Amino acid sequence: MRGMACQCASSPDSFEVWPDDVEAFSGRVTLHEESRGVGLYQCPSCHQWWYFDSLSRSNLAVKLPNKEAWGRVDAETHRMRIWTDQQGGIGSDTCRWRGCDNPAIRDRAFCPEHFFKRDFS
Ligand SMILES: [Zn+2]
Ligand SMILES: [Zn+2]
Fold first, then answer.
1. Residue 4 C-alpha to ligand 1 middle, in angstroms?
2. Are residues 45 and 109 in contact, defined by beta-carbon separation less than 8 angstroms?
3. pTM over the 0.85 mark
């Protein structure tokens, strides 16, 4: 679409792309490479590189400092941070996992790392 403004600068460094927004996101960027469901995209207007994983349980877009960083994205860490933000972020309590001094997620007993360990593995 002509005249569509590039939204890279105002986008967060990494975010979840909801299923309904996948087309809009991938329509604004150009696919350069793809491997195992993860694409390397570049914005045609500002040349920002993007990591975009559209095959996992949640679609993840990550801004890349350069093209080479594509293969080094730690998707799980990004997903953990995004998920924590969706829960309201980090609270003021300490994680109740034995020996852990990390702050817990707001209104939860555990820090993101231990919350994930406990519930998702
Ligand atoms: Zn852009
Ligand atoms: Zn912890």
1. 10
2. no
3. no
User: What would the pLDDT profile of 43-52 be if each residue is shown by its tens digit?
Assistant: 999 999 999 9
Look at residue 58 in the predicted model and tell me its pLDDT: 82
**Which numbered ligand comes closest to the C-alpha of 118?**
2
Ligand nearest to the CA of 10: 1
Residue 118: per-residue pLDDT: 66
Closest CA to 50 of 32, 37, 35: 32
Residue 38, strand partner residues? 35, 53
**Per-residue pLDDT tens digits for 73-101:** 999 899 999 989 998 999 999 999 999 99
CB-based neighbours (< 5 A) of ligand 1, an ion: 6, 8, 43, 45-46, 48
The CA 119 to ligand 1 mean position distance, Å, reads 37
